[in-house]
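During data preparation, we tokenized the protein backbone, and the record follows.
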Amino acid sequence: MATTRVNFTEWLPDQPGVTGALTNALNVYPKAVGYGPLPTEEDYSSAASEDLNSVFAGKDPSGNTKVFAGSSTKLFLLDSTDLSLDDVSGTTYTATSKWNFAQFGSLVLATNDQNIVQFADLSTTTISFADLNASAPTAKLLTVVRDFVVTGNTSTGSNEVRWSGINNPTGTWGSVAVTQADFQTIPDGGEIRGLTGGEFGLVLLERSIVRMSYVGTPFIFQFDNISRNLGCYESNSVAQWQGITYFLADDGFYSCNGQQVDPIGAEKVNRFFWDTIREDMIDEMSTAVDPFRSLVIWGYPSQENTYRLLIFHTVTKRWSYADTNVDRIANLFTPGITLEGLDAISASLDAIQTSLDSRQWVGGKFLFGGVTGAKISTFSGPNKTARITTADLETDGNKSMVTLAKPIIDGGSASVAIASRQNLSEAVTFNTAVAADSENRVGLRSLGRYHRVRVIPSGEWTTAIGTEIEIQPAGMR
């Protein structure tokens, strides 16, 4: 009888199960060794007066976090004393696309492709949005590049980039040499679908990617095409973390550091994504970064009527996925919540499911979240039910019997199910999962040539590493 250790390696749904990669990694996230648990989503705020489509967190000059949310007709500010969402709109908006936010100094900026860019000054006592300037554009996209607020896909051109005066976004826009405010039309590449900033800007068009570099007067910015014929497929697929821009192209997922474009989903998850997304609802995609776990995450409506999360670990370049009840995902800073504030959330501290030690209640911490209906949500609850499934395991090409499994789960235990078959043409059918006993042993009896082992971690586990299985040759007749 042979004991084999099977480590939980890379999940590669685009590859056949006999290649040695995992065939499933649901409701987990990749780690340097194995996989970690993804928390469940929980309501964080009270309900706004209408459904939300975006959320953003900024910081005032004192370092206090302010959380904003947008809907079709309103902008809201989260009240950290009772977690209600207060209307801070400058007018009644008419957005058909979701809000995009950015922060420039003490100003939080918001654009919705229908109204003039809005701003709220976080240095003031009363926070309310208003038009940035009468000459400011209406734009779909918004970012900050060096000392300029930059907009893209404006009302005067879907392939136009327009920027403010240097260090003066509330001043005059247009083409003003003395302030360095100006605009640029990019003639090739189609419409602008993504815009990210920092020391340089990246303009992601339908069929090209352009680097935007500050060069000073008289040209202000220099535009260099770094990718022809490859561009951004969906505006809501763009995310940025540590100077790297991530996005969805026609054929899958890519990253760009401003110099080169790298395929990160090719032969890994691209076919899985296109096979499972509701393409008629692709504009409901969203992206978020979980810096605490080094993750870039894409959310999209799946054909199974869930909102699916495709999760990329930036350190190991490995993937996983999850299903969730949120409508869109986003990254947040947390406002500090006092005990009095917790009283407003629940009359009983014991009734609050999230631990009082959670970073959710500590001000200024990054938090992975999103929106669900009219509420802001956070992924801060108990572990989701995870499923990790091995590749097709084969011994010597003959029939064998799996008799025992010992899941290797740090901080917890697991249930195990097995699917065995004689030929690869047969359907993969798992038996009922059996929980490990007090000695972490799962008795099995499954005959076949190919075996897949499904592990369902349980308890307050922290890392799913793999499983040991005992396999013995089956007699030949």
Remarks:
- Residues 400 and 473 are 4 Å apart (CA to CA).
- The chain has a mean pLDDT of 92.
- The longest helix spans residues 270-276.
